Amino acid sequence: MTSLIGKTLLIATHNEGKRAEFAELIAPFGVTVKSMADFDLPVPEETGTTFEQNALIKAKAGADATGLPSLADDSGLCVDALGGEPGIYTADWAEKEDGGRDFGLAMQKVEHLLIEKGATDPKNRKAQFVATLCLCNGDSDPVYFRGEAPGTLVWPPRGEQGFGYDPVFLPDGHDITFGEMPASTKHGWKQGEGDGLSHRARAFAMFARACLAAA
Fold first, then answer.
1. What dihedral angle (degrees, nearest 10) is formed by the CA atoms of 182, 14, 132, 179?
2. Does pLDDT of 32 surpass 70?
3. Residue 74 annotated as catalytic
């Protein structure tokens, strides 16, 4: 696969939290990063039924509009006791009537549904964060990279780091939530030093090995 080192890469997102995480992850590499906001691009409608389909919609929209290699992420929280929900609708659960998003309310919704199902014991509160990256680069076929981070949901929320549902997600093998972790710990990935801790870091590690290695 062609290396992207020395090139410009479009991060096809309007989510500031995701943009900041990608900026942190890609900082060690010689890649110029642009966002959809830099080109004033509209948010494409995500009509897919899987993380892969929605990531492709965003990556393809960015590549078609700019001609740049375009990397998109679709990610979410999949709760075992809720049959995998909210899944691809993770961000939708935070939407408010005024068009904004309130992840505090979204976390409360998840907790309410868990209580309704009697899922109060940690063993019944298992969940996974899932991130799927899609790279669209010229006429090449789209390439996907999927990372997962297993953990347990806690209540009440803990910490103010990260974004989204991070304050209620306790990753396996740790005693602090993503919301309590500094970015360096949550990402936990450096070139050649493992695959990281978060779902996005693990997906990015796969992408980096494939696309950010020296040509």
1. 20
2. yes
3. yes
Task: Give the pLDDT band (50/70/90) at residue 193.
Answer: low
SS3 letters across the chain: CCCCCCCEEEECCCCHHHHHHHHHHHCCCCCEEEEHHHHCCCCCCCCCCCHHHHHHHHHHHHHHHHCCCEEEEEEEEEEHHHCCCEHHHCCHHHECCCCCECHHHHHHHHHHHHHHCCCCCHHHCEEEEEEEEEEECCCCCCEEEEEEEEEEECCCCCCCCCCCCHHHEEECCCCCCHHHCCHHHHHCCCCCCCCCCCHHHHHHHHHHHHHCCCC
Residue 177, token pair as written in the block: 């939530």
Find out whether the peptide bond into 157 is cis, omega within 30 degrees of 0. no
* Average pLDDT over the chain, rounded to an integer: 90
Cα separation, 204 vs 211, in Å, equals 10
What is the structure's pLDDT at 190?
53
Of the pLDDT bands very low, low, confident and very high (cuts 50, 70, 90), residue 54 is very high
Dist CA 36 CA 58 (whole Å): 10
Q: How many whole angstroms separate alpha carbon 163 and alpha carbon 161?
A: 7
Catalytic residue among 38, 40, 74, 195: 74
Backbone φ, ψ for residue 147 (5° rounding): -125, 145
